[in-house]
Amino acid sequence: MNGAVRAVVLDIEGTTTPIAFVYGTLFPYARRHLRAFLDAQGSVSDFQDLLDRLRKEQATDREAPADASVPEYVEWLMDRDRKSTALKELQGLIWDNGYRTGELKGDVFPDVAPALERWNNRGVGVGIFSSGSVLAQQLLFRHSSAGDLERWLRWHFDTTTGPKTARDSYERIAGVIGSPADAVLFVSDVVAELDAARDAGMQTALSLRAGNAAVPDAHGHRAVRSFDELS
Fold first, then answer.
1. Burial (0-12, 13-18, 19+ Cβ within 10 Å), 154
2. Contact 194, 81 (CB under 8 A)
3. Percentage of the chain surpassing pLDDT 70?
4. Which among 75, 101, 127 is the end of a domain?
5. pTM of model > 0.90
């Protein structure tokens, strides 16, 4: 790292958590339980806002099937791995049931828990920036395979902060953290995200985990295979 780090911000998929868990467990679980979950909500008033946002999104999406029902539209979004804020919120609500019943347990790499504790003990705050909703993030770390890791996390950022490939998103994150951008380290397996964070002034590290897609060019970002390499 180039200088003193006051905060570390982590991506989830391919950084703290195996990609296989996201695509092989979480996404299929949400799809299997989607229609039953929607039926169970009935006319719950608090849930209507989410449904209305999905309908408005569908109406303005030129690629979306115009005559699809809400479940059909959500499945269409899932099939394309769209970074829809409403979809991510809905998935988080479905996963909440799975974590509560014990059907789901958040998978994290072995070095994650020790690193989170180590950084906190050194006074370095840790946050998450993921396309998954804040609720989905909290559930994964609270019910992780390494125990409750949510206690080590100070901040959560999702698509309401902005796109993960936009410089402005990282500027906003630095503002919320209350630290100069160059004192924040962002770790991700996606070079485009790291480029945006670096443009905002942050330090960066490219996560090279088992199961991640090959990265032919790190674009000058430091590459690490474990958080143990981040002193």
1. middle
2. no
3. 97
4. 101
5. yes
